Automatic annotation (TrEMBL):
Gene: rpfG_1
Protein name: Cyclic di-GMP phosphodiesterase response regulator RpfG
Molecular-function annotations in GO: cyclic-guanylate-specific phosphodiesterase activity
Enzyme Commission number(s): 3.1.4.52
Keyword Protein biosynthesis (UniProt): no
SUPFAM superfamilies: HD-domain/PDEase-like (SSF109604), Nucleotide cyclase (SSF55073)
Highest classification ranks of the organism: Bacteria, Bacillati, Bacillota, Clostridia, Eubacteriales
Matches recorded under SMART domains: GGDEF, HDc
UniProt keyword annotations, A-Z: Hydrolase
PROSITE patterns in alphabetical order: GGDEF (PS50887), HD_GYP (PS51832)
Residue stretches making up the HD-GYP domain: 155-342
Length: 342
């Protein structure tokens, strides 16, 4: 029980309670300089929101292992918050803490170079007690402020790195759909051109075609590639991918212009879609274009859960769903586009 009271159950490091007790103990040794280093995991909320808390926990455990390996036996490493770690270094000066900070950064680079998904990024700040600041509470505050100053510079780039990794993961999964994203970009561009969508809008539409399903990186493979029909619970989990994708896109400057479309790309013309139940023209035009092209391509190519339909069968299904799932006016144009393709 005493161990549990002083240690973090996830990482095995000391917890905040013990960290504060040790800080008070070292405060009594006024003739000793004490270093303090604070680390914060960049982008942990994004990882939790997109890949799930299990992925976030694995990232925390990896970070804890890296930090612990970078310090001396007498140094005390603790997890003091959800995404924050702190280290107490008795009897040291600035050069010792600075070297420890560099070691952490080098080990993080090695960890990421090995292909870690998601990548790890840490903002680090440190301070050392001395004649002008012997109160360790003030030393901690200075280290924490230095960490947040670094986080202001690295936070966005860290989130972008996570999103880039997720985008690569989505592209790696595309081998199972045999170039679905490439075919879809061609289809949406042809339909958009046929209705006179301005050229300036085509670039974002192509981006939507490529990354509308980026949220599926947060859906377990057992659901994503299941050959049998999904259960009600599995379907509910699958539907989360549009919201997960929305959060991912909001965190990346390249995808943020299409974040709202990613959220709404499964809305139905009759209001029976998800996640917001939008209806008719309340659904963005780009999402209505994508919905038709995406359904047609999915039907005419093999998927884990069905064999490809013929072109005639897919066209019949698109016609059947005009006015319910799909914008009927766009369906009429799409059928003309498909006719000229063959």
């Amino acid at each position: 029980m005493k161990y549990l009271g002083l240690h973090d159950t996830l990482t095995g490091l000391y917890n905040r309670t013990f960290f504060e007790e040790e800080m008070l103990r070292l405060q009594e040794k006024r003739d000793m300089r004490v270093g303090m280093l604070v680390c914060d995991i960049d982008g942990l909320k994004l990882v939790n929101d997109t890949l799930g808390h299990e992925a976030g926990d694995r990232l925390l455990i990896s970070a804890a292992g890296i930090i612990k390996e970078c310090f001396r036996l007498g140094d005390m490493v603790a997890r003091i918050g959800g995404d924050e770690f702190a280290v107490l270094l008795p009897d040291c000066d600035e050069s010792v803490v600075d070297l420890a900070s560099l070691r952490i950064k080098e080990e993080v680079e090695k960890y990421n170079a090995a292909g870690a998904v998601p990548p790890l990024s840490m903002s680090i700040g440190f301070a050392v007690s001395g004649k002008t600041k012997d109160n360790l509470g003030e030393v901690f505050k200075e280290a924490d402020n230095n960490m947040y100053r670094e986080k202001l510079h690295s936070g966005q780039s860290a989130r972008s790195a996570i999103v880039q990794t997720l985008m690569k993961a989505l592209e790696a999964r595309d081998y199972l759909t045999e170039g679905h994203a490439d075919r879809l970009q061609e289809l949406v561009e042809e339909l958009a051109s046929a209705i006179g969508l301005p050229e300036r809008g085509l670039a974002d539409l192509r981006l939507l075609a490529k990354f509308h399903d980026i949220g599926k990186v947060g859906i377990p493979d057992r659901i994503l590639f299941k050959e049998a029909p999904l259960t009600a619970d599995e379907y509910s989990e699958m539907k989360r991918h549009s919201e997960i994708g929305h959060r991912i896109a909001q965190s990346n400057p390249d995808l943020s212009p299409i974040a709202g479309w990613i959220l709404k790309h499964h809305e139905w013309w009759n209001g029976q879609g998800y996640p917001q139940g939008l209806k008719g023209d309340a659904i963005p035009l780009e999402c209505r274009i994508l919905a038709i092209a995406d359904a047609y391509d999915a039907m005419t190519n093999d998927r884990p859960y069905h064999r490809a339909l013929s072109r005639e069968e897919a066209v019949a299904e698109i016609k059947r769903c005009a006015g319910s799932q799909f914008d009927p006016d766009l369906v009429r144009v799409f059928l003309q586009v498909i006719q000229y393709r063959f």
